[in-house]
TrEMBL record, chain A:
GO cellular component terms given for this protein: cytoplasm; proteasome core complex, beta-subunit complex
Pfam family, one: Proteasome
InterPro entries in the record: Ntn_hydrolases_N, Pept_T1A_subB, Proteasome_sua/b, Proteasome_suB-type, PSB_actinobac
Taxonomic source organism: Phytohabitans suffuscus
GO molecular function, one term: threonine-type endopeptidase activity
Name of the featured protein: Proteasome subunit beta
TrEMBL record, chain B:
Source organism (scientific name): Phytohabitans suffuscus
Subcellular location: Cytoplasm
One Pfam entry name: Proteasome
Subunit structure: The 20S proteasome core is composed of 14 alpha and 14 beta subunits that assemble into four stacked heptameric rings, resulting in a barrel-shaped structure. The two inner rings, each composed of seven catalytic beta subunits, are sandwiched by two outer rings, each composed of seven alpha subunits. The catalytic chamber with the active sites is on the inside of the barrel. Has a gated structure, the ends of the cylinder being occluded by the N-termini of the alpha-subunits. Is capped by the proteasome-associated ATPase, ARC.
Family, per entry: Belongs to the peptidase T1A family.
Listed name of the protein: Proteasome subunit alpha
Length: 279, 278
């Protein structure tokens, strides 16, 4: 029932109660059924029930951060989706990606976006980058029960710290564990089943102070390496023109790199691999 | 049991109305009007406490009266909008629904509580064209009025509204609309009936920008506002094409310095989540 509808004519509770600035806390009081992690689950382990989303990488560059995700979702040995989007803007200055149970992950991202926007509107100011990361950690923590039954999701969060005084520390990446642990990463990070291979590729090629374009190319290459060795990660699909989702966040805002831009980079990466398989 | 004096319901309501009206008329005024590029909010405000703010993508809020009371209403409006947008879709949050919720709440407060809220609020939604803009006035007793094109509220609202309506057209540029609003606000309250001149530091100005996608609410302050107040800008920011990032309002640099206002063009909140499922 939409909040505010009370035919008695009495003052709806949430008009009378000043409450907090957190949308999640508001939901937990007024519409707990909308919160992931508050739904009773039948006993048992059900990891194979829903599609899984896989590899996302994030790279710090001179102006901010870049995040790239492949487009595959799998259900067991089948491809559940060829064009799922795992990387989204969290707010104008940060990006969030997810790996794990796709449905739970998409809900988590949606809730996180509203959480940040809600705080900004209520308080008239944005949360700090660390504040945003902490809120996301709390959302992951709330999903622990479902995670233990196989519906796990792990996000990755990256953004620009507008309060940073050191220009080298403008772009920051945070990773999470399934229990809600929050870890700040240096330089680059990846999540999902292909992240092992993607991170190995990044370890050899990453250097501090990359431009946005260099970081985008690096991200697409790392996803290519992940798809090379992990069945659950999709490579660039040149026949269907489905390319990784690549977004960047700088002090100018977030930007999704267009399919034409990413397509050109993906094609050049594939062409280079024709010459040299190892990249 | 203590004997209570009898007061007729009519008397009680009259007293409450009078109390609320007195409180509202003491405050500074605010005006809301449509212009070619969207909906403009201008409030006379010397403090940093906001009278004008964002409710949702295409919905803005302005209020006059007691700050703690309308701030409470504003927060509730943001909650309702975010809850509805989260449970249904961002497109399903409408200005009319928010105005109705406010009418419901203010009506309940007026009849139930000992003290009526001394507030008058405006909910405005920007449409695709100036004809599709919606401006609602909700008063302390919960009555709602649809005000096409222009509305004024606060002390001496009638006089201000009269001055506004005379010169208002739907195809005003942003600069023209701001100057008209400020002139109307300054037309009352001067010494001996003289008009006052209001500077940028005495004003709180914001727009719902018709041509933006996503969150359309923008504050206009500082140098941008001063420029709009003083001169006829050759290329009004309202006429720029929607695809290019707007130089004003507010300039990108200012946005970096104080990330207080809503986001960027590129924020594709939730829309792309919908696409993912196609």
């Amino acid at each position: 029932m939409p909040a505010g509808f009370d035919p008695s004519g009495r003052l709806p509770d949430f008009f009378a109660n000043p409450g907090t600035s957190s949308f999640t806390q508001f939901l937990s009081v007024h519409a707990p059924e909308l919160l992931p992690g508050r739904r009773p689950l039948p006993p048992g382990y059900s990891a194979d029930m829903a599609p899984h989303a896989t590899t996302v990488v994030s790279i710090v560059c001179a102006d901010g951060v870049v995040m790239a995700g492949d487009r595959r979702a799998t259900a067991g040995n089948l491809i559940a989706s060829r064009d799922i989007e795992k990387v989204h803007p969290a707010d104008p200055y940060s990006l969030v990606g997810m790996a794990g149970t796709a449905g739970v992950g998409i809900e988590l991202i949606k809730l996180f976006q509203v959480e940040l926007e809600h705080y900004e509107k209520i308080e008239g100011a944005m949360l700090s980058l660390d504040g945003k990361a902490n809120r996301l950690a709390a959302l992951v923590r709330n999903n622990l029960g479902a995670a233990m039954q196989g519906l796990a999701v792990v996000p990755i969060f990256a953004g620009v710290d507008l309060a940073a005084t050191d220009p080298a520390k403008v772009g920051r990446i945070f990773s999470f564990d399934v229990a809600g642990g929050l870890y700040e990463e240096t330089g680059y990070d990846g999540i999902g089943s292909g992240s092992l291979f993607a991170k190995s590729a990044l370890k050899k090629r990453y250097r501090p102070g990359l431009s946005v374009d260099e970081a985008v190319t690096l991200g697409v290459e790392a996803l290519y390496d992940a798809a090379d060795d992990d069945t659950a990660t999709g490579g660039p699909d040149l026949t269907r023109k489905i390319y990784p989702v690549v977004m960047s966040a700088t002090t100018e805002g977030t930007r999704r790199h267009t399919d034409e831009e990413v397509g050109a980079i993906a094609e050049s990466v594939v062409a280079r691999r024709m010459e040299n398989i190892g990249g | 049991m203590a004997m209570q004096f009898y007061a007729s319901p009519e008397q009680i309501m009259r007293d409450r109305s009078e109390h609320a009206r007195k409180g509202i008329s003491r405050g500074r005024s605010a005006v809301v009007l449509t212009y070619e590029g969207g909906v403009l909010f201008v409030a006379e405000n010397l403090t940093s406490l906001r009278k004008v703010s964002e409710i949702y993508d295409r919905i803005g809020f302005a209020a006059v009266g007691r700050y703690n009371e309308f701030e409470n209403l504003r927060r509730a409006g943001v909650r309702k909008a975010d809850l509805d947008g989260y449970s249904y879709d961002r497109r399903d949050v409408t200005g009319r629904a928010i105005a109705n919720a406010y009418a419901h709440a203010l009506g309940a407060i007026f009849t139930e509580q000992v003290k009526a809220y001394e507030v008058e609020i405006c909910v405005a939604e920007v449409g695709a064209t100036a004809e599709a803009d919606e401006i609602y006035r909700i008063t302390y007793d919960g009555s709602v009025q649809d005000e096409p094109g222009v509305m004024a509220m606060g002390g001496q609202a009638e006089a201000i509204s009269g001055a506004l309506k005379e010169a208002h057209r739907a195809d005003l540029s942003l600069g023209e609309a701001v100057r008209l609003a400020v002139k109307a606000l300054g037309s009352v309250g001067g010494e001996g009936g003289q008009p006052r001149t209001l500077g940028a530091e005495q004003l709180e100005v914001a727009v719902l920008d018709r041509r933006r996608t996503g969150r359309t609410f923008r504050r206009i302050a500082g140098a941008t506002l001063t420029a709009l107040l003083t001169e006829e800008p050759p290329a009004a920011p309202a006429t720029e094409s929607p695809s290019e990032p707007p130089s004003e309002p507010p300039p990108a640099k200012e946005k970096q310095a104080s990330p207080q206002s809503a986001g960027s063009d590129d924020l594709e909140i939730l829309d792309d989540l919908g696409d993912a499922e196609q």
